[in-house]
Design goal:
Strand order of the largest sheet: 2-1-3-4-11-6
Largest sheet: 6 strands, antiparallel
Distance between the termini: 13 Å
Structural class: alpha+beta
Number of strands: 11
Order of helices and strands: EEEEEHEHHEEEEE
Shape: globular
Strand content: 25-35%
Radius of gyration: 15 Å
């Protein structure tokens, strides 16, 4: 995970075993597959791994947007996002393996986006990893195949991801 400066090694008090991709993540750090009208959405859970919950911030009620950018600009965009992270939270972008794991559960995740009336991932999305000095990894969320390396000078999509460290490793 990148930009770990906001993380406190002390574990949070969330039972991570009950958190699943496609759940709505609310600002009070509760999670549900149900839309709860009197609660504000923080994100939609896309991945739970290594004691960390990852959620797509474009589902938030705070205006956080997907962007179509070149790879270096995508990385700058993520670093520049001003989001009110709480203790143990950071805004980041997925690595290549993480993004491939998100794609595996994306049918369920996209259904949650549809239920709340938000756009879900489509097209090629940049990962934070690069292949070499010219190319970086991207994953295609529209077609069945997972693409690998793309020229960094071309624009693809990037979405800010909120990571909450729950368990110490």
């Amino acid at each position: 995970m990148k930009n770990q400066k906001n993380l406190n090694p002390k574990a949070c008090s969330i039972d991570i075993s009950s958190i699943k991709p496609g759940m709505i993540w609310y600002y009070d750090n509760t999670f549900s597959f149900d839309v709860i009208a009197d609660k504000k959405r923080k994100a939609i859970v896309e991945l739970v791994e290594n004691g960390t919950i990852y959620g797509d911030l474009t589902a938030s009620e705070i205006c956080v947007n997907e962007r179509h950018l070149k790879w270096l600009d995508a990385k700058k965009y993520i670093r520049a996002i001003s989001y009110p992270c709480t203790e143990n939270e950071i805004v980041t972008m997925y690595g290549y393996t993480q993004l491939k794991n998100v794609k595996k559960n994306y049918d369920l995740i996209s259904q949650t986006f549809k239920r709340i009336g938000k756009e879900y991932r489509k097209g090629l999305h940049w990962a934070s990893d690069f292949c070499d000095s010219k190319d970086a990894y991207a994953v295609d969320f529209t077609f069945g195949s997972i693409q690998v390396c793309y020229d960094k000078k071309y624009a693809h999509y990037v979405r800010p991801v909120l990571a909450l460290k729950v368990e110490s490793l």
